[in-house]
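User: C-alpha cells for Beta-2-glycoprotein 1, please.
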Amino acid sequence: MECKSSLILLCLSVIFTEVISTQDNVCSRPQLSDNIQLEGLQRYFRPGAELALSCKQGFTPISGPLRIVCAASGQWTSTKLKCIPKRCPYPDDLTNGEMYYEDVVYQSTINYTCNEGYTLNGERSAVCLANGTWSTPVPECTVVTCGLAPIPLNGLIIYDRRIRGNSTEFGVQGTYKCRPPFVLIGEARAECTVSGNWTKTPKCQVVTCPPPENIDRGYMSVDEEREYDYMETVKYGCHGDYVLEGSSEIVCQQNGNWSDKPSCKAPCSVDIRGARIIYRGRKMWIRDLNPKKVLHNEIISVFCKDKTRKCGYAVPTQCIDGQLRIPDCFEESSAFGHILHSSSLPSEIQQC
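Assistant: Done. Predicted C-alpha cells:
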C-alpha cells in the first residue's frame, strides 16, 4: 500500500484497525457521555489498552478516574467521570440599568439595558467563556444630558433645582416666565428629554385685545375705545329685570381675544288671571304676584287636576328668556268662577 507522507499516520491507523478487528475480544471505540472527549481516531483496541479521558473545552472534570482500560472480555472498565460547565463569577450590579440572565455557566449570556434617560457605554451583552470569564466587562449607564434651556427673547427660565455648569441632566425641569408687559405664548413648563433636547421653547410677545363690545339690554364697566392688555378685565351688567347669564367679567386672553361675553335674558309675563301658584317656595294667589312676571330661570308651579282620582297636583314650569310655557293640563277658571268655586280649584282640593 502506497501512501503520501501526509497520510502515513492515517494509513497506519487503518491497517492496525483492519488487523485487530479480525481478532476476538477487542474493544470498540467507547461511547462516552456528553462533554467527555477522546484523542485520536482509532476505532478498535487490544485488551490492556488504556485511554485517557478529558473534558471538552469549557467543562471541568469531577467524580471519577480520567483513564479507562480495555478488558480481556472486550469491554471497557467503567468510569464515573462527569464534566460540568465552568462557572463565571456573578456580574457586578449595573447602576441605573437592568441585567437579564438565567445562569452564569459556560456559554450563558447576559443582556444589559439602561433605564430611561441613560445611555449604555459598552457592549449590550456578554458571554461566559470557556476559561470562566465574561467576554466583556459590565458596561456603564450614563445619564443623558442637555445644554442649558433656550431662553426666549424678553423671557427667562426658573429651574426646579440648582444648576451647575453649562449642562443639565435628563428629567431636569423649569418654568418659563416673561418680563412685563410680554406674555408667554406656549407651554410654561420645560424639561430636558431623553433625546438630549429641551421641550419646545415658548415665545414672549405683547398681546392686546380690541375694544370690547357691549351686550344687548346691558352695559359695560368701561367706555374707552382703546386696546386692552393681556389679562385686563371688563365687567357687564343688565338693565331692569333682565338677568345676566354667563360670567359677569370677561378677560383679555393670550390669543388676543376676549373670553366669552355674557348675555341678558328677559323676564316672563305670567298670563294667568285666577289661580294659585307656587313661587319661590310659597303658595300664593296669582293676584298677589305684582308685577305678574318672573325672572329668567325662575320656576313657578301651577296646579292641575287628576279627574279620575279627583285630586290636585303641582306642575313646575320655568322662565327661559321671556318664554314661560303654561302646562297643557292647567285649566284656568273665569274670574267669576274663581271667586264662587275657589274651594273646588285643583290647588284647594286634596292633593294627589
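User: Anything notable?

Assistant: DSSP finds two helices and 34 strands in the chain.
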